[in-house]
Amino acid sequence: MNFTSVNPYTQQKINSYPALGAQALDRKIRQADRAFADWSALSLENRSGFFRKVAAYLRSEKQRYGELMTAEMGKTLKESIAEVEKCAVGVDYYIEHAPTFLADLMIPTEAKTSFVAYQPLGAVLAIMPWNFPFWQVFRFAVPSLLAGNVGLLKHAANVSGCSLAIEEIFRACDFPTGVFQSLLIESKTVETVLKDARVKAVTLTGSEKAGASVASIAGSQIKKSVLELGGSDALIVLADADLEKAAKVAVQSRMQNAGQSCIAAKRFIVEKAVKTEFTDRVLQHIQAIKQGNPMDDTTTMGPVARMDLAEAIERQCAETVRQGARVLHSGNRDGCNIQPILLDKVKPGMSGFDEETFGPLAVIVEAKDEQDAVKLANQSNYGLGSALWTKDLDRAERLARQIQAGSVFVNSLMRSDPRVPFGGVKLSGFGRELAEVGMKEFLNIKTVWME
Questions:
Q1: What positions carry a catalytic annotation?
Q2: Aldehyde dehydrogenase domain: from which residue to which, for each copy (predicted)?
Q3: CA–CA distance, 373 with 400 (Å, rounded to integer)
Q4: Using one digit for the tens of pLDDT, what is the confidence trace for 406-421?
Q5: Angle between helices 243-255 and 275-287 in degrees, nearest 10
Q6: What would the pLDDT profile of 188-245 be if each residue is shown by its tens digit?
């Protein structure tokens, strides 16, 4: 079995990588298990020293890794380089804040001393997607490994080159053997890894179906799991919003990474009084997008990552139109290259409203008023990110508390940021990545009581 990476823009083969056999896989898990004892015994400052090398290495090699990322999954080179830089920023953040996050928490009780200690679990399996092939991995690996865990990466098959490149980074920065390893394995082999007693926990970013399967296996083994799954994120625009800024950011949020982001604004829910003006402004920004060769500096949107994804967007668009939506901007397709799509008159029950649309497809949904907008936003099986546009910040805070999502960004672009927790509710998963709470997801929160 080989994993083949294909350039989505040209459809040309990049490389093939052999899958791990059973013996090689067992050897890697054994290396991780052995590495954990020594790695977790190092001081936090010593582990931080390794990560300082990582941050510097990422910055020095951002062009090379950016080009690899663009070749394998199609985002523009500018986006790819920015992603590598974001990984380095994430490293900096955790190096600075880990001493506070991991410090013992003293608890006043009648005991002579009582405190909470935060201790690593062991080998953590990370099942990561292709859409942010570096950032998704680093936002797991940095806090987990810095806290003393070791990591096993099962990356998406179409970015196998990125998977091996990330392992190369840790090796180039002199990490001990076994602390971070890439596993080129088929999805069906994940169950074998997760049921191995030497693997202590799992984190997955991916589809609802994959999340349900992994959570089921982890549950059967009584192992901790964190799931970051799909989203159908609402962007609410109220009548008093700055419409030009809202429209510009809405299009940026929806179309960056060719629309392949869990927290992209997918449903533009707009108050009736300003729907026409907002829609006109959105259309202008969409028409300014240049879809094309992602290696070209003038291109603002590359292809989607795989042919099946392109076909899925095409199907969802056609179904939504058949269900009564109106096309405002056509998404002509050539292979994986899709022009941006904008649909109006979208309502609950339509594919474009109910399903996660993972590509350059935006839909306009009309709301009668603010309460109707919140109702429509919550009328989804997903609850990952959301956005709210209004000049009244008191109203914004009140409504933000009513929105069923893991995050609400007011008058701002939805994004993941190492300083704040990231994750969702409902079918968008459970657990959190990033910030202090994300760092503690794979730690033994141990109570110590001494009299």
A1: 228, 262
A2: 3-448
A3: 12
A4: 999 999 999 999 999 9
A5: 50
A6: 999 999 999 999 999 999 999 999 999 999 999 999 999 999 999 999 999 999 999 9
Q: Tell me which H or E stretch contains 124.
A: strand 123-127
Task: For residue 422, tell me if it sits in a domain.
Answer: no
By residue range, what is the domain housing residue 210? 2-229+428-450
Query: Does residue 312 sit in the same domain as residue 347?
Result: yes
Report which residue type is found at 406: G
User: What percentage of residues in the chain have a pLDDT greater than 70?
Assistant: 100
Same domain membership, residue 164 and residue 290: no
Do the beta carbons of residue 53 and residue 173 sit within 8 Å? Answer: yes
* Cβ-based neighbour number of residue 312 at 10 Å: 18
- Give pLDDT tens digits for 96-130: 999 999 999 999 999 999 999 999 999 999 999 99
Torsion of CA 126, 131, 133, 137, to 10 degrees: -30
Give SS3 for 5. Answer: strand
Helix locations, 207-301, DSSP H: 208-220, 243-255, 275-287
CA–CA distances in Å: residue 92 to residues 49, 96, 147: 11, 6, 14
User: Which of the four pLDDT bands, split at 50, 70 and 90, describes residue 54?
Assistant: very high
Residue 407: which residues within 8 A CB-CB, separation 6 or more? 263, 384, 385, 386, 414, 420, 421, 422
* pLDDT of 1: 86
Q: What is the pLDDT of residues 239-296, one digit of tens each?
A: 999 999 999 999 999 999 999 999 999 999 999 999 999 999 999 999 999 999 999 9
pTM above 0.70, yes or no: yes
Please give the structure tokens belonging to residue 16: 């093939």
The 3-state secondary structure of 50-94, one letter per residue: HHHHHHHHHHHCHHHHHHHHHHHHCCCHHHHHHHHHHHHHHHHHH
**208 φ, ψ (degrees, to nearest 5):** -60, -40
Same domain, 266 and 186: no
3-state SS class at 326: strand
Structure tokens at 283: 């259309």
Instruction: Looking at the structure, tell me whether residues 305 and 250 fall in a common domain.
Output: yes
Do 54 and 174 belong together in one domain?
yes
User: pLDDT value at position 60?
Assistant: 98
CATH number at residue 299: 3.40.309.10
Please give the pLDDT value at position 331.
Answer: 80
- Residue 383 tokens read as 């609850």
Are 239 and 190 part of one and the same domain? no
Residues 55 and 138 in one domain: yes
What is the rounded distance in angstroms from the CA atom of residue 305 to the CA atom of residue 260?
8
Cα 43 from chain centre:
30
In angstroms, the CA 417 to CA 402 distance is 22
